[in-house]
Design brief:
By secondary structure, this protein is mainly α. It has one domain. 84% of the residues lie in helices and 0% in strands. The protein is built from ten helices and no strands. Helix 1 packs parallel to helix 8 and helix 3 packs across helix 7. The longest helix is centred in the C-terminal third of the chain and has 40 residues.
Length: 226
Amino acid sequence: MSNVVHLWAIFLGTVIGLLPIINPLASAPTFLAITEGDDEPRRREQALKGCLYMIVILVSTLIGGTVIMNFFGISIPGLRIAGGIMMTGIGLSMLAPHKNDPHEKTEVSEAALRKMDISFSPLAMPMLSGPGSIAVTLGFTSLATGWIDYVAIIAGIICVAFLTYLVLRLSGKLAGLIGPVGLNAMTKIMGFLIMCIGVQFVVNGVLAIATDPELLRGIKAVLMTP
């Protein structure tokens, strides 16, 4: 009985820990913006693939993320800074006004023939499985004491991905409800918020590096050296 309670606690902890960070409700307007011009089947396909990629990324992080990061010498602050730069760029592109290009008709016709796949980037990475969710997933490894605990964490990741898919799939109805003007306004607002989140990721990464105990001890040793 205690094992069942323990597994449920890990499962619910995974869902509660990841859902606010992934925040599919906040991702829905961005998803609509980056799939502008797509029909509903195409949007459903991109949402499904993006959520599947998210599962693969987070499960891979859970199983081998620590080993990979140690192998390449990547720290969590470094991951946050890199992800923050990526998110800031996405936010800036959403805030940038649309410019009329003389080659726009050619680009539109080419896009109609070969539509860009956004399911992996930027949807799965870094929107859904960004530095925050990856860092939280890495933290779950400290809760796991056996393979069954990893199964509970993976089940929680799949549950969050399913909820995210449902929200993204219904995002088209949101577009029809608020109209193009409202969607454009929401896109600008979300672009600004995403840019702020990206900058905050960079700030948190820099602060984590600046307040690292080993760095502070090194600075103190240098200052105390005669």
